[in-house]
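Here is a typical protein record:
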Amino acid sequence: MINDLISDALTRIRNAAMRKLDVTTLLHSKSVEAVVSILADKGYIESFNVIEDGNKKTINVVLKYDDNGRTVINEMKRISKPGRRVYKGKEDVKRFKNGYGTIIVSTSQGVLPNDKAYELGVGGEVLCTVW
């Protein structure tokens, strides 16, 4: 059994991008779905859809590549882990990689990208960073 579904999802996306696959399948949870929807909104992945098979759900993710065939994701890093949680205040999630990257934060308002969390004036647990 996998304890950390978010890091498993990030690793599956990273591995599929290295192998230049078009689609990868992730295990479903609400937090993974929220992270993937932020990745789609920010343009790191092409699209995703949730597939229900009886009582089991999965998420199919269509990866995005540039004109040269390289993935648009340079780095995906899990920050807060089950053994060590990392929390940041609203001022600390303001910018990442000079505005080119995204910090995904779990807040009291839900799972948000760093710009939206700063706009709402909330901090929270830093799930991962992407650029």
About this structure: Strands lie at 23-27, 45-53, 56-63, 76-78, 87-88, 102-107, 110-113, 124-130.
